[in-house]
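Sorry to interrupt, but I need a hand with the structure work. Could you add the entry underneath, on a fresh line?
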Amino acid sequence: MAAIAQINAAKPVCGLGSALKPSSKLSAFKGAALRSSKVSTPAAKVSSVVVAGKFDKDWLNSNGMVLPIAFAGWVIPASIPAFGTTGTSLNSLFFESIGQEMAHFPTGPAVTDDFWLYMILWHFGLFMCLNFGQIGYNINKDKIW
């Protein structure tokens, strides 16, 4: 029994022996993974940073001017009085419904109230302008188009 224990103790466990000793291939791969590189594709050039084990804190690549420009890019067209057959704008309908709901403040809007439709349409348009503005800014910054 003692002879079997000595034989088993001398052999490394399958798979662990090679993992404890860093190979030259593995260390070369780790060095490449920590460097920033330009990835070139036929359609476009995309800048990518690969950092092993860390999250890129500037993943959004944001710019401070995208928010006010996208906000203006939504509020100005939404103020044009062409919503449906009433001849009023989406902004005026939305803000008017907010005023009506604030008139009876402690109680919220009913489920069938038009406030929900105006709120969803207004915010959907705003978020689409923000998303497309951010996408357009990053495409222009990276010189993809």
